[in-house]
Q: What sequence folds into this?
């Protein structure tokens, strides 16, 4: 049966006046879009293969290339968009579940963009971070309810294990396998230099990266890939992955093609076998089971490491978080519906879960209402895109944020959202050695450090404007936020007033 | 002294360095004008063999055999940089023959040419290193 | 316009305090006169005083000072008080009619002892029992507001300039070993008596000058422990924070000061190991009680005063001594009025607590 033809999504536009036929585009395109035709003496393109990753655009020395969205449109209407119709054709062609990557691209509200930040005027002074100290250090973990003193009346300073971060940002979970060795190397080195943490994801920890252990969060997911004693002991904290914002309710899928060499060894599964994480942890069917896993991991690590429980932001998130806060976990990580992924069923990515801003606000308030906010620290992710988002998240009540997409962008990702193909031209979401080497960790880690340094400066500037000189005075400080264009209900969930109030 | 070094581990074989080199030594300000529809004569060459890529350019040897072998006295080492005087070169290509690295090659006029570190063109520093997308080519002191 | 408590109102201020380390009596005119040279730091929309050692004859009883909007509220409130306390004495607080102070509410004071049976059924001590009663009246009883609830101490406050408020309450007729004073410059208020300062809970009282930038972080934290910030003022939240740290967590004053005006991490890291460990512990355990933005406060309790500035010292505050007396004020001028020959004038550094205690057995 001949497949239904679908016109390519992108067009390659080449300025012949500028093209010098250096063929860099051809050499750099793993999708084989570009080709030099010796008979015609020109470069030609097969646009059907183009994913708009912009590798060719970026490397073209004469800037002769651009990729544009095709204007060949179906006869769409408000109900049947071009994309919706094409998805039908694709499924009729293949009979398969549609797959996508990265976060939800739908035009659903981005609450960060509807929240504005305060600044001091007259009644109290803004603080200049260039002249005054400005602190961004945070400690994540359970805080004691009651201080204790020894027989001499001195404070007993032992507390539950804490994760110390120089700024309230961590690189969130991306497994070795879903991303490359060099991407992991870049994240690990940058996290160490920055005094923050990166996260192994569910793919285990490559033996070369144990040295970065003090800045590593290791994940224990439903597939238990790569989990063993040394793995747990190497880390600064252990994260139980219950769910992921991009695909709540399902587990990770890494095709056998990516389970090669070190990936297979690190995951402790045979080469070429698909790594399919179950949707649930099969030893956790309820909250009391979670408590047992939390304490199993604490036993295994001699109560020296905080345990993080990561969940996707779903409808009942406040109650779920309340349960987790009483489970013995030290940190709750919540991943919003715009969070990224290397591969997810499109329908799930685009229709399941709730915005992280609302989830964060309701969880923080719920834990305070129940008086158990100190039991846990709150980390949120799911599309924190800038220092302003970080500041807004902290002011809503987060102790820290997880960023992954922004970190990948720093590494070169152009958000073409075809990670699932394994042909990442930027050397990130691939295991092809020829492609992996395109990401030099010297450059990758430097760019990550630059990005975070830039954010740290911006966070300080924003805090200084509010007259705040330490991040802990920003946490949960919702008076510093105002909403614009939000309904009463949205404002009440966010716990903020409308601008002008 | 700073030299051009190549790290094979990170060389992608994209050949951008060759074009950046040719452009840098073209004396023109527009790359398309300099290189479009013309054969190029770069002073750095990427050697490819399967998955291995390696950019080769002059190492500015401590005791350069090309200098010794030049029958016209056109090659000299000045302040650590091995240079070819195009006016003196007779085009015998002995230097091409003797260079153990393959770093010398004939230029468009027939005279031999090689990397002179872009010190005297408008770049001022090696264009290959500046334009390498993966830091495989570096210009540094070692 | 919204009343104080329904909206957050920033304000600037003047503060002053005096204490006798020997526990000697000081009359109220000393403190209210000290506010005169700082007249321009207030705008007539709030002034008040806290006095310690003024009720020696009732020193074992909780003294409630309460504003009532109506007689009926008073009846209702008294009925509630009597469910929980033995009310030994209830009376109007004596005032003087002066043109500068108008629209006063009904102002009463009650000397009370908690009913042991009720207290036992709630399984709390008398301080917690009394604090809960105050919270309950202030949050749930419309038209009644407890503005003072400690033993052998009392707050006096009103809408007006502080020096006039002192005359209004006839403070020259009271004798206490320690006094604090406050003049307020709110930026927007219809002028509600309960909104004037000091703010007080049990025997703790706070006068504060500043506008803290950490307010909502502090408020949302402290409200987890049963406190209700009904006024939305800095002073209220600082009072609750100190109550929580000192009374409920049992920290020392110095420890509490290094929570709310915590040293910078760079300073902590330069300290000797033991000290570093302690300061790191306090900052790690109570991060949400760090107060940022400008403040200068004088915290009063039975037996002492503590003056503290924010860690950047964004508000003026000076201290001085003369014989057994210690003086604290926003401006030296105020101290000179109380004691022209004051000595050892000192501007405490940001975050450096100045703690003055009355000698044991002298109060």
A:
């Amino acid at each position: 049966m001949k497949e239904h033809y679908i016109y390519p999504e992108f067009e390659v536009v080449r300025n012949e006046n500028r093209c010098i036929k250096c063929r860099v585009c051809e050499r750099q395109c793993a999708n084989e879009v570009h080709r030099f035709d010796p008979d015609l003496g020109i470069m030609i393109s097969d646009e059907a293969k183009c994913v708009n990753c912009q590798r060719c655009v970026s490397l073209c020395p004469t800037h002769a290339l651009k990729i544009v969205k095709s204007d060949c449109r179906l006869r769409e209407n408000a109900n049947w968009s071009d994309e919706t119709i094409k998805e039908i054709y694709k499924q009729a062609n293949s009979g398969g579940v549609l797959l996508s990557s990265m976060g939800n691209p739908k035009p659903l509200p981005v609450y960060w963009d509807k929240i504005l930040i305060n600044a001091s005027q007259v009644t109290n002074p803004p603080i200049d971070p260039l002249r005054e100290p400005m602190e961004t250090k945070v400690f994540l973990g359970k805080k004691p309810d009651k201080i204790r003193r020894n027989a001499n009346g001195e404070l007993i300073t032992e507390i539950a294990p804490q994760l110390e971060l120089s700024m309230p940002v961590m690189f969130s979970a991306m497994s070795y396998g879903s991303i490359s060795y060099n991407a992991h190397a870049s994240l690990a080195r940058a996290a160490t230099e920055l005094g923050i943490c990166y996260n192994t994801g569910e793919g285990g920890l490559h033996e070369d990266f144990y040295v970065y252990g003090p800045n590593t969060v290791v994940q224990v997911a439903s597939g238990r890939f790569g989990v063993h004693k040394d793995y747990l002991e190497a880390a600064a904290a252990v994260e139980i992955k219950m769910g992921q914002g991009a695909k709540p309710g399902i587990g990770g899928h890494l095709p056998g093609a990516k389970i090669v060499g070190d990936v297979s060894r690190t995951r402790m599964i045979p080469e070429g076998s698909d790594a399919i994480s179950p949707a649930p942890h099969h030893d956790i069917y309820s909250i009391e089971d979670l408590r047992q896993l939390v304490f199993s991991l604490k036993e295994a690590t001699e109560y020296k490491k905080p345990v993080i429980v990561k969940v996707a932001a779903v409808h009942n998130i406040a109650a779920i978080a309340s349960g987790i806060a009483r489970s013995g976990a030290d940190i709750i990580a919540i991943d919003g519906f715009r969070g990224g992924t290397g591969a997810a069923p499109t329908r799930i990515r685009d229709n399941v879960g709730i915005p992280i801003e609302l989830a964060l606000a309701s969880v923080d308030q719920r834990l305070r209402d129940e008086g158990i906010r100190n039991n846990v620290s709150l980390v949120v992710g799911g599309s924190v895109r800038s220092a302003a988002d970080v500041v807004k998240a902290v002011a809503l009540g987060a102790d820290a944020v997880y960023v992954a997409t922004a970190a990948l962008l720093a590494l070169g990702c152009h958000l073409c959202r075809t990670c699932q193909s394994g042909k990442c031209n930027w050397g990130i979401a691939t295991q092809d050695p020829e492609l992996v080497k395109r990401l030099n960790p010297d450059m990758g880690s430097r760019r990550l450090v630059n990005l975070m340094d830039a954010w740290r400066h911006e966070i300080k500037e924003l805090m200084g404007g509010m007259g705040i000189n330490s991040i802990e005075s920003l946490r949960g400080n919702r008076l510093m936020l105002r909403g614009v264009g939000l309904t009463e209900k949205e404002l009440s969930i966010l716990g903020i007033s409308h601008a002008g109030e | 002294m700073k030299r051009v070094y190549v790290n094979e581990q990170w060389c992608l074989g994209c050949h951008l360095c060759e074009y950046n080199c040719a452009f840098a030594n073209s004396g023109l300000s527009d790359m398309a004008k300099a290189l479009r529809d013309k054969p190029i004569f770069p002073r750095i060459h990427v050697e490819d063999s399967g998955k291995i890529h390696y950019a080769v350019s002059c190492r500015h040897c401590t005791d350069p055999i090309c200098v010794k072998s030049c029958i016209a006295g056109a090659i000299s080492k000045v302040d650590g940089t091995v240079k070819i005087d195009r006016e003196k070169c007779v085009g015998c290509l002995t230097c091409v023959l003797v260079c153990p690295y393959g770093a010398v090659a004939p230029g468009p006029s027939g005279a031999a040419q090689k990397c002179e570190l872009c010190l005297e063109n408008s770049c001022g520093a090696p264009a290959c290193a500046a334009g390498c997308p993966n830091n495989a080519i570096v210009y540094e002191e070692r | 316009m919204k009343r104080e408590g329904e909206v957050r109102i920033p304000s600037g201020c003047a503060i002053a305090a005096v204490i006798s380390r020997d526990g000697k009596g000081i009359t109220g005119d000393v403190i209210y006169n000290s506010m005169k040279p700082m007249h321009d730091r207030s705008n007539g929309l709030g002034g008040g005083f806290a006095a310690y050692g003024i009720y020696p004859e009732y020193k074992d009883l909780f003294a409630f000072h309460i504003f009532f909007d109506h007689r009926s509220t008073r009846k209702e409130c008294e009925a509630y008080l009597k469910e929980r306390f033995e009310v030994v004495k209830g009376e109007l607080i004596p005032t003087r009619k002066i043109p500068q102070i108008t629209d006063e509410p009904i102002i009463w004071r009650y000397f009370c002892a908690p009913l042991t049976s009720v207290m036992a059924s709630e399984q709390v001590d008398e301080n917690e029992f009394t604090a809960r009663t105050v919270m309950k009246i202030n949050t749930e009883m419309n038209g009644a507001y407890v503005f003072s609830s400690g033993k052998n101490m009392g707050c006096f406050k009103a809408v007006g300039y502080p020096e006039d408020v002192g005359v209004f309450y006839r403070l020259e007729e009271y004798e206490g070993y320690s006094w604090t004073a406050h003049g307020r410059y709110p930026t927007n208020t219809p002028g509600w008596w309960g909104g004037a300062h000091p703010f007080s809970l049990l025997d703790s009282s706070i006068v504060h000058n500043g506008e803290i930038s950490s307010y909502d972080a502090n408020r949302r934290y402290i409200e987890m422990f049963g406190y209700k910030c009904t006024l939305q003022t800095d002073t209220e939240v600082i009072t609750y924070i100190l109550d929580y740290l000192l009374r409920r967590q049992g920290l020392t004053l110095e420890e509490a000061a290094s929570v709310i005006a915590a040293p910078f991490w760079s300073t902590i890291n330069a300290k000797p190991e033991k000290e570093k460990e302690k300061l790191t512990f306090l900052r790690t355990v109570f991060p949400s009680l760090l107060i940022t933005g400008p403040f200068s406060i004088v915290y009063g309790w039975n037996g002492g005063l503590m003056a503290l500035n924010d860690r950047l010292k964004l508000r003026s505050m000076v201290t001085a001594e003369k014989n057994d007396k210690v003086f604290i004020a926003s401006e030296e001028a105020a101290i000179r009025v109380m004691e022209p020959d004051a000595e050892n004038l000192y501007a405490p550094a940001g975050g450096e607590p100045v703690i003055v205690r009355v000698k044991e057995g002298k109060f």
The mean pLDDT of chain B is 94. The first strand of chain B starts at residue 2 and ends at 6.
